[in-house]
Amino acid sequence: MTDLYNHGTGNVLTERHDNGILQITINRPDRYNSLTLPMFEEMNQIWADVERDDQTRVVVITGAGKAFCTGMDVAQPDPTPQDALAMLETERKRVATMLRIEKPIISAINGPAVGYGLSTALLADISIAADDAVLIEGHTKVGVTAGDHAALIWPLLVGMAKTKYYVLTSEKLTGAEAERIGLVSLSVPREQVLPRALEVASQLARGSQQALRFTKRALNSWLTNAMPQHELSSALEILDFAGADYAEARQAFREKRPVDFPSARTAGGPAN
Questions:
Q1: Which of 36, 113, 233, 252 has the highest local Cβ count within 10 Å?
Q2: Quick check: 185 and 122 in contact, CB under 8 A?
Q3: Interior CA angle at 196 toward 220 and 91, to 5°?
């Protein structure tokens, strides 16, 4: 398409539906829609475009193929310190913009959502997951702080006890279990995810736009008031990128072996 969303990479697709519905599709299906470093900035720009787009009333975001989004592509080269700092600022803007946009955002979680992918899914106003989709917070498994959304939104969605359990353990949930505990709005059979999301979007697009946007603004004050917690967790995550645990997790991934975190072998950790 030849409008403000045309960034030319092909990694993020946009499609306009009737009644001002915009569909955003993360498009790296061969890599389960994981993000390269440049894609973090591209996604940030997409949300900035949504905010200033007068043609759009409702946004639906989903993933191409079998996954929603599995976070940062760990097969790419290690981020430099400059990359990490740039990502911190990009992510701060991305989260703030998603919360500030007054148009309703619906996530159609058609498959695995991990890390950044789960962040995007849960920061949407309405989240519709495949009942068999795998949802994993995931950060602690790769030796970094859960910094991109968990401290901000999980406690409001499911309470502190469930938050600490799933965020500290990185244990996976299915979409059905996520709905049961209140982490997502709805779970439906996989083939119904996008149609149901578009159906809800159509309903909202026909509603009172002022009432919907003002209601979202009021509800999101719970989240915007908690932005200092988010910024702290994000900064701690970026610090972890320079740590030995993160380096070991990436090396273990490349060598296809279990992770042996150095911090688990130091004083205060389990005996060798």
A1: 113
A2: no
A3: 40
CA distances from 134 to 15, 110, 115, 158, 170 (A): 26, 10, 12, 17, 12
CA distance 219 to 124: 12
Give the residue carrying structure tokens 């999301």. Answer: 197
β-strand partners of 61 = 24, 107
CA distance 75 to 31: 10
Give the position of tokens 């509603």: 207
Taking every pair of Cα atoms in the chain, the longest distance, rounded to a whole number of angstroms, is 62
For 75-116, the pLDDT digits (tens) are: 888 888 888 888 888 989 999 999 999 999 999 999 999 999
Q: pLDDT for 245-271, tens place per residue?
A: 999 998 998 899 999 999 999 755 544
Q: How far apart are CA 1 and CA 7, in angstroms?
A: 10
79 beta partners: none
Packing angle, helices 81-100 and 37-51, rounded to 10: 20
Mean pLDDT of the chain: 93
129 within 8 A of 179, measured Cβ to Cβ = yes
